[in-house]
Amino acid sequence: MKLLYSIFAGALLLIMFSAINNTSQSKSNGSPGKYSGSVGDARNCQNCHQTSTSATGLITTNIPAAGYKKDTIYTITVTPGAGTSGFELTCENSANAKTGTWTIISGSGTKLCNSNGAVTHTTPKSSGAWTANWTAPATSTGTVKFYTAVHSGTSAFTHTSNISVQPDPSSTTSLADITTETITTKVFPNPTSGSFDVEYNMLTSGTLSITVFDLTGKAVAPLFMGYREAGAVKEHFNLDNQLSSGLYLLMIASKDSHAVRKLMVQ
Questions:
Q1: Is 161 within 8 Å of 59 (Cβ atoms)?
Q2: Reduced to 3 states, what is the DSSP secondary structure of residue 74?
Q3: Which domains are delineated in the chain?
Q4: Residue 27 pLDDT exceeds 80
C-alpha cells in the first residue's frame, strides 16, 4: 500500500510540476512554428499554455501610412508587456498564405521558424522588444496582415494581436493591384477643374493620408496627413493649378483601411 501511495504521490507531483512549468514559461528555444495566431496557422501559444486574449499595440512597423512598396525592407517590432517570455510573428496575404521574406537582425534574440515563414525568440526575455526585418513581396499581393502571439510568463496568458497594411500605389502597376478596399468613398465633382470634395467613412479613429498619384505611381499632390475620428468625414481640396489636365489616382489610406479613386483633372 505504501508503495502504491508513493507511486501515486510522485506521479501527482510530476503532473503538477509539468502544468506549472507549462503555464509560466515559453519554450526556451522558441516556438516550433505555426503558433502565431494567424488565420493560416489557426493556432497560438494557448495550445500549449493558458487562455488566449486579444490585445492591441503589440505590433508596430516603420511602414509609411501610404503603405508598403514592393521588394522593400521594413522593420517589424513586437513590444510585449513586462514579464513576457516568448512570441511568434508572421505575415499573411488576403488568401491567408505567408507573404514577404523574413530576415533576422543581429543581436535581436530572434530566429526563423515555420519553414522561414515566421519569427520567434531564441531565449525567453523578461522585458524589451523583439525586432525582425520583413521584405515586401516583389509582386503586390494587396493588403497584408501581421500576426503575433505572445506568451506572458507573469500572467501565464497568451496575448494575440494583428495589424493590416495596404500596398503603396506608387509601387503598384495598376488599380488592380489595390485590393479589398475598405473605405466607402465619393469624389465630386469628377472631372474637376481643381476644386473638389471627398467624402469617406473612417472605420476606426486614427492617422489618415490623402494623396494624389500620377499613373506612373509618383505622388504629385499630398493633400492631407493627420488624425481623424471614426465616422463620416467630408474634406474640401483645391489643387490651385498644381496639376496639368489628365487622369490621376486619389488614395485615402489609414492604418487598417484604404480606397483608390480615379481623379480626372480638366
A1: yes
A2: strand
A3: 27-165 (2.60.40.4060), 181-265 (2.60.40.1930)
A4: no
Q: Collapsing DSSP states into helix, strand and coil, what is residue 157?
A: coil
Please name the amino acid found at residue 107. G
Strands 246-254 and 185-188, by their bridges, are: unpaired
At 204 the pLDDT is: 82
Strand 206-213 versus strand 158-165 pairing type: unpaired
Q: How many residues does the chain have?
A: 266
Q: Which of 121-125, 141-145, 181-185 has the lowest mean pLDDT?
A: 181-185
Question: C-alpha distances in angstroms, 249 versus 3, 104, 160?
Answer: 81, 36, 36
Furthest-apart CA atoms within the chain: distance in Å:
97
Instruction: Name the residue among 173, 203, 208, 186 with its Cα closest to residue 262.
Output: 186
Which of 222, 230, 214 has its CA nearest to residue 252? 222
Q: Please tell me the pTM assigned to this model.
A: 0.58
Q: What is the rounded CA–CA span in Å between residue 96 and residue 148?
A: 14
Written as one string, the DSSP assignment of 7-44 is HHHHHHHHHHHHHHHHHH---TT---SS-S--TTT---
Which three three-digit cell numbers place residue 120? 520567434
